[in-house]
């Protein structure tokens, strides 16, 4: 167990000291939110009143996904430098190493999420959630971050270099666009509806919206949970397999 | 200080190690025995199979064939026991650039199962021993190549290993850092730790090792103490530099099989000699009675380079 704690401490420390990554993962989502609210917001009609109220949960989820995807780079870094050989020769398990990175990712993104929420609040986002709804929103968000982090871990194990692993962030950055994050899905061309309604980002965002704004949830939270658990169920064994393959 | 977990006088025993990557055969049935408490050098050019050997012995890679025991444990069946008895310092520094030297060492000690308090103590001791105390709180990214390599070796010692593997510990270091590294390796040997090091530098093997194996294309082509290996070529030779190409050709014809060294580019020929003044004088008179063909001479003591070139070029 102590190996896990040591590795998590290590990854959190490395995250903290990687200033570039900290700044990008904070500034980018905040900037995006400002762009959406002030540049496009006037032209977008939603059913939630002000646009910031509509978009804030979407930006939260985008920020979380983007931050989580950085796990791919940090893991690829470890796999391509000599340190993986040292850890292995010290009998430190791959699981401890990867878990350390994922824990750091969750911590990192919790901080980033809080920052995005603070900025959203400053520009007029007023959540109307009770403590139970906040807790539920938090659980879904943490699950979503973990699922994407483990998926990113698999990408990091697969990539030949940290630069290549960085490509995974494009994927997570793009995924919220064909979803209900920024505009309602029914404003999209009809051929996109199928994908937009059934991809993981949409139910996560919809359940955040429902919980934070005290709106009807429908089935979105169950779909969100199912997606997160499903992604974890795929990503975890995949990571195990890829780690063994990578360290043959 | 050092735990001796297994009986017997061999720290490493390997038989018939073979490994291929695809169609490329890297090791072809290598046998090794390393005496407990000795410094063992594996010498060979790039691509000879040195790193692959280290990776097999440190449980990181599985051999296709053969078996190996390190610190008395089988590298496959008793992997965890081997890992707890060894340390590996590879060619590339296995450190976190964005952690300080002290943080790196504490982390490694913790992973070796030390308590927080013990780990702090071990880190302090190692920093002191490797003259890194002043840099302890600086990030590794600010370290020089030599400091990095010292910290890397220190990181390997956090678990009091019985057998220390150093894969090309001085490659890429400047001469001064290399010398410091040699002192580090020598002190490990004196402390009774078994050291297995790989190197491309004969001087290094000569200086540090009790026993050397010369590896070429995945096979051991020679083995012995540095002195035994050096005895395989003439202990000393007289190198003669000719005045011009014509003189060189004439001298080469005259010497025939007596020439033990030929360097036409430098117009140089070597003959066996004991290096004594009377013999050198007699040789010069005999070979160049008119005193016109030889412009300079030098007595050359055999180095492992001579052995190495002789072994790998034939």
UniProtKB/TrEMBL annotation, chain A:
<feature type="transmembrane region" description="Helical">
    <location>
        <begin position="52"/>
        <end position="75"/>
    </location>
</feature>
<protein>
    <recommendedName>
        <fullName>Transport permease protein</fullName>
    </recommendedName>
</protein>
<feature type="transmembrane region" description="Helical">
    <location>
        <begin position="21"/>
        <end position="40"/>
    </location>
</feature>
<keyword id="KW-1003">Cell membrane</keyword>
<keyword id="KW-0812">Transmembrane</keyword>
<dbReference type="Pfam" id="PF01061">
    <property type="entry name" value="ABC2_membrane"/>
</dbReference>
<keyword id="KW-1133">Transmembrane helix</keyword>
<keyword id="KW-0472">Membrane</keyword>
<dbReference type="InterPro" id="IPR051784">
    <property type="entry name" value="Nod_factor_ABC_transporter"/>
</dbReference>
<feature type="domain" description="ABC transmembrane type-2">
    <location>
        <begin position="20"/>
        <end position="246"/>
    </location>
</feature>
<keyword id="KW-0046">Antibiotic resistance</keyword>
<feature type="transmembrane region" description="Helical">
    <location>
        <begin position="131"/>
        <end position="153"/>
    </location>
</feature>
<comment type="similarity">
    <text>Belongs to the ABC-2 integral membrane protein family.</text>
</comment>
<dbReference type="InterPro" id="IPR047817">
    <property type="entry name" value="ABC2_TM_bact-type"/>
</dbReference>
<feature type="transmembrane region" description="Helical">
    <location>
        <begin position="165"/>
        <end position="185"/>
    </location>
</feature>
<keyword id="KW-0813">Transport</keyword>
<feature type="transmembrane region" description="Helical">
    <location>
        <begin position="96"/>
        <end position="125"/>
    </location>
</feature>
<dbReference type="InterPro" id="IPR000412">
    <property type="entry name" value="ABC_2_transport"/>
</dbReference>
<feature type="transmembrane region" description="Helical">
    <location>
        <begin position="224"/>
        <end position="243"/>
    </location>
</feature>
<dbReference type="InterPro" id="IPR013525">
    <property type="entry name" value="ABC2_TM"/>
</dbReference>
TrEMBL record, chain B:
<protein>
    <submittedName>
        <fullName>ATP-binding cassette domain-containing protein</fullName>
    </submittedName>
</protein>
<dbReference type="InterPro" id="IPR005894">
    <property type="entry name" value="DrrA"/>
</dbReference>
<dbReference type="InterPro" id="IPR027417">
    <property type="entry name" value="P-loop_NTPase"/>
</dbReference>
<keyword id="KW-0813">Transport</keyword>
<dbReference type="Pfam" id="PF13732">
    <property type="entry name" value="DrrA1-3_C"/>
</dbReference>
<keyword id="KW-0547">Nucleotide-binding</keyword>
<comment type="similarity">
    <text>Belongs to the ABC transporter superfamily. Drug exporter-1 (DrugE1) (TC 3.A.1.105) family.</text>
</comment>
<dbReference type="GO" id="GO:0005524">
    <property type="term" value="F:ATP binding"/>
</dbReference>
<keyword id="KW-0472">Membrane</keyword>
<keyword id="KW-1003">Cell membrane</keyword>
<dbReference type="InterPro" id="IPR003439">
    <property type="entry name" value="ABC_transporter-like_ATP-bd"/>
</dbReference>
<feature type="domain" description="ABC transporter">
    <location>
        <begin position="12"/>
        <end position="242"/>
    </location>
</feature>
<dbReference type="InterPro" id="IPR017871">
    <property type="entry name" value="ABC_transporter-like_CS"/>
</dbReference>
<keyword id="KW-1278">Translocase</keyword>
<dbReference type="InterPro" id="IPR003593">
    <property type="entry name" value="AAA+_ATPase"/>
</dbReference>
<dbReference type="InterPro" id="IPR050763">
    <property type="entry name" value="ABC_transporter_ATP-binding"/>
</dbReference>
<dbReference type="InterPro" id="IPR025302">
    <property type="entry name" value="DrrA1/2-like_C"/>
</dbReference>
<keyword id="KW-0067">ATP-binding</keyword>
<keyword id="KW-0046">Antibiotic resistance</keyword>
<dbReference type="Pfam" id="PF00005">
    <property type="entry name" value="ABC_tran"/>
</dbReference>
């Amino acid at each position: 167990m102590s190996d896990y704690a040591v590795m998590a401490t290590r990854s959190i420390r490395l995250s903290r000291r990687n200033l570039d990554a900290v700044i990008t993962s904070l500034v980018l989502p905040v900037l995006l939110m400002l762009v959406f609210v002030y540049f496009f917001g006037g032209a977008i009609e939603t059913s939630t009143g002000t646009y910031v109220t509509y978009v804030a949960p979407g930006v939260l989820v985008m920020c979380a996904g983007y931050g989580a995807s950085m796990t791919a780079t940090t893991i690829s870094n470890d796999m391509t430098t000599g340190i993986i050989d040292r850890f292995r020769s010290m009998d430190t398990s791959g699981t401890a190493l990867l878990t350390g990175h994922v824990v750091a990712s969750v911590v990192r993104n919790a901080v980033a999420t809080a920052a995005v929420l603070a900025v959203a609040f400053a520009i007029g986002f007023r959540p109307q959630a009770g403590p139970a709804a906040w807790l539920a929103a938090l659980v879904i968000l943490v699950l979503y971050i973990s699922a994407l982090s483990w998926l990113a871990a698999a990408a990091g194990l697969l990539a030949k270099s940290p630069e290549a692993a960085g490509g995974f962030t494009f994927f997570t950055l793009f995924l919220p666009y064909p979803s209900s994050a920024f505009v309602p899905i029914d404003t999209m061309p009809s051929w996109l509806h199928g994908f937009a309604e059934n991809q993981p980002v949409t139910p996560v965002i919809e359940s955040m919206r429902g919980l934070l704004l005290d709106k009807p949830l429908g089935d979105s939270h169950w779909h969100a949970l199912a997606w997160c658990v499903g992604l974890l169920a795929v990503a975890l064994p995949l990571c195990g397999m890829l780690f063994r393959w990578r360290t043959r | 200080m050092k735990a001796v977990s297994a009986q017997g006088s061999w720290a490493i025993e390997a038989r018939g190690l073979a490994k291929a990557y695809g169609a490329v055969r890297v090791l072809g049935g290598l046998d090794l025995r390393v005496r407990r408490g000795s410094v063992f050098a594996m010498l060979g050019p790039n691509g000879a199979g040195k790193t692959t050997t280290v990776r097999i012995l440190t449980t990181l890679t599985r051999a296709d064939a053969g078996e190996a025991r390190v610190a008395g444990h089988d590298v496959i069946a008793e992997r965890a026991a081997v890992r707890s008895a060894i340390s590996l310092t590879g060619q590339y520094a296995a450190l976190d650039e964005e952690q300080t030297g002290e943080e790196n060492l504490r982390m490694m000690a913790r992973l070796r199962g030390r308590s927080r308090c013990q780990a702090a103590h071990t880190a302090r001791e190692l920093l002191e021993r490797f003259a890194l105390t002043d840099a302890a709180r600086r990030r590794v990214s600010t370290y020089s190549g030599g400091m990095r390599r010292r910290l890397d070796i220190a990181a390997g010692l956090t678990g009091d290993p019985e057998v220390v593997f150093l894969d090309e510990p001085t490659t890429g270091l400047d001469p001064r850092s290399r010398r410091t590294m040699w002192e580090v390796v020598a002190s490990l040997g004196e402390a009774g730790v078994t050291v297995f090091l790989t190197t491309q530098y004969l001087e290094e093997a000569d200086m540090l090792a009790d026993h050397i194996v010369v590896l070429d294309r995945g096979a051991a082509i020679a083995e012995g103490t540095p002195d035994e290996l050096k005895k395989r070529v003439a202990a000393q030779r007289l190198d003669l530099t000719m005045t011009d190409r014509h003189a060189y050709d004439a001298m080469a014809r005259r010497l025939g099989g007596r020439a033990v060294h030929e360097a036409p580019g430098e117009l140089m020929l070597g003959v066996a000699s004991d290096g004594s003044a009377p013999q050198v004088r007699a040789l010069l008179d005999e070979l160049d009675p008119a005193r016109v063909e030889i412009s300079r001479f030098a007595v050359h003591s055999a180095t492992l380079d001579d052995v190495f070139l002789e072994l790998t070029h034939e």
